[in-house]
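Sequence of 6-phospho-beta-glucosidase (Companilactobacillus paralimentarius DSM 13238 = JCM 10415).
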Amino acid sequence: MKYYHTNTNFLWGVATAANQVEGGWNEDGKGMSIADCLRYRPQIDIRDYKSVNSMDSEEIKRALRDNSTKGWAKRHGVDFYHNYREDIRQLAETGINTYRFSIAWSRIFPNGDDSKPNKAGLDYYLNLVKELAKYDIEPVVTLSHYEMPLNLVLNYDAWYDRKLISFFEKFADTVIDYLHEYVKYWIPINEIDSIIRHPFSSAGLVEDRFQNKNFSNVIYQSMHHQFVAAARVVQYCHNNYPNMKVGCMVTRTMVYPYNSDPQNVLQASKVMRDVYAFSDIQVRGKYPNFLLKQLEEKNIRLKMESTDEEDLKKGSADFVAFSYYSSVCTAYDVTGLKVTKANRTMGVYNKYLPESDWGWQIDPIGLRLSLIDLYDRYQKPLFIVENGLGAVDELASDGSVHDDYRIDYLSKHIKQMLISLTQDGIELMGYCIWGTTDMISASSNQISKRYGLIYVDLDDEGNGSYKRYKKDSFYWYKKLLSFGSEIPFSFFKTTNVSVEEVSLKIR
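Predicted 3D structure, token representation.
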């Protein structure tokens, strides 16, 4: 299949992760996952993401002792597990034609190393994709999105243990076989680069379990195992289901030099190379020389089996999926400079950009630059699978939620995407808003950092009716998609572009 900027198969949609929406954490045979160990910690500054998501053996023991959902936000989510039919029905009203979601690994193989899958889990996802088919909504399925079985941490060394490659293969192959009639787009591992920033939620790595090892070496070795596992998923799909497309998925943060000082420009270039390193491996099928040099300088030595290089080469991704929320600046010397965050990436405050309630700087043009850079680098179809604004929303007495700030954010980003489609010659498969309903934040384990088009009556302590309310942004997205093949730029609030309209065949 070819993808063009006037593609009749352009995918407009929304996206979620199982651990952030599903709930039902111990129902119908589901095992405990690493996400079930993460607590909401109001005593910690919400911008201190490292501390909020820190994990040690004592925290895991605490989680194992407590079978409640109180304080464990990802155990209850927003109860999508029991409400998916109604949630999908409401989302279908917007006119979306794709929904990206993830599979809870521990719902299929409760312990990760089970001999047989949990049929109730498989049937749940089969019913979900059948429900999407009723509304002609194309599923895009992420196999692993921060929710591996806890047993693989307790009785193995998580992704540091090479056995996890075969465990993941078995899980992936089982799900792909079960859903193959309904799903053609797959992403093996969400934001595979995130293991560097949060090794527990990405790969189940707990530092105090590796006291006699260089933890940086542990992280990169674990990442290597994830690369091999993902590449084998690509091969499995290509060999058994030739019509399937399998993408890689990375965190895309645009990084600028703080100013024109050549040392800051060089620093930004170095950071951007780090951003690219992990997609390079999955798209080009080999480790880039600059990353190998970095590992050598850090005295990090990867253990590889003789087949690994061939696996990476044969398992290169069909498309490049990425999340984009914001950008940062960087400087070779940050002394005295204000530090900010972008999707848990530390950087220097950019005086030209506003920031969200959680300190993420809002940069729509950074999305266009990301599209240009990624396409120029790989010449493969791109897919924006996450873009959205976490904000404090207020539910009015009449059940309305006036989130003009979210509409403004989405409008400006989508507009830059459309400009890039018309002017920059990129190939783009689709665009997904993060998220659908509100969900539990991955970074702060709270729901008050709301992303959804639909408000959920729930607070950070887990109190509420779980009732859904459509936000103004829901109706805005519905109106946008109602234009069908012709989306006029006049629909967007922002100006300063010469292009008057864009043709996108989305029906």
